[in-house]
Amino acid sequence: MKRALVTGGAGLIGSTLADLLRRNGWKVRVLDNLEPQTHRHGRPAWVTGDSDFIEGDLRDRATMSAALQDIDVVFHQAAYGGYMPEIAKYVHVNSFGTAQMLEIIREENIPIKKVIVASSQAVYSEGAATCPLHGLVFPAVRPVEQLQRGDWEVHCPICGALTKSALTPESAPIGGETVYGLTKVDQEKLVLLWGKQIGIPTVALRYSCTYGPRQSIFNPYTGVIAIFCTRLLNNLPPVLYEDGEQTRDFSFVDDIARANWLAAESDALDGLPVNIGSGRGVPICQVAAQISEALNIHIPPETNGEFRPGEMRHLTSGTDRARAAGYEPQVDLPTGIDRYLDWIRAQGNVRDYFSEAAEILRSKGIVHRATKP
Fold first, then answer.
1. 3-369 falls under which CATH superfamily?
2. Residue 162: what are its φ and ψ, rounded to 5°?
3. What is the pLDDT of residue 268?
């Protein structure tokens, strides 16, 4: 029987992955600190007694060492995420926490057979694009000065022409233009480099926007589908940044879990960063409309020219590498939204936490407003 450690195993992806592993005969240990921003009521019901559950912080060396004992594969899902303003906490949890975990495995000679780390599309500065003159290009992040003028489009980095979104391959430049994105770069580079140095297979899965049942209804800083749902269920309009026409690639959580299981069972992705997505970009305004229609709550979205510096305009994952290894997404966006709404309806009264969070983000300079000429 294979033995897995799932860090962040009480969360959306971690818990879904833990369930999948158990169904496939794995013994699973879960480590989670039950971050109050996400788990407002403590340990959630879906963390079952079948798991060896450790409530603890991955930054605590003794806790992490104990969690790693007698483990074959580490699925490192734990991270501090979203658009929260705590710079030091991002770095301490994501970058330091990952580095210390790798150090413990090496220094204590723990016989781990593979480490799979949850990376993110946020490692890219901007999605790939096509220029009518220069073909496929990899634009840099849009300057704040451009966004302040209300110019949301992506321009060719060579000639300045307007571009069209293209599939983003793993070979696209990475850097991270938000604190969260920067720490995701840290995580995947640390894990892949460490694996090569000591000879343990490692994989970095770059998730697209993940959603589905168990996505926190309490965290107003991450998960656009969850945020839109809680707004509409409180008879409030979804809030669209920029003009709402920016596109994202969405993945249902079950597909993300299957990608992790595939990476563990196969050696085809060892040593690589791997995009995990649907390969289809969807405008955010369309997502809001789909949720509104599914809920039968018809409140027009609010678009007021606000934007978040460092946020990409378009990102659609090129998934050839994952598909060549056998990955195939199985849940399309309309089906996934319906399944999420079935879950959220069963949660009772749902509060809006976004309004207060939005004011905090404005006060911290994370959200700006355009001043069109």
1. NAD(P)-binding Rossmann-like Domain (3.40.50.720)
2. -65, 145
3. 98
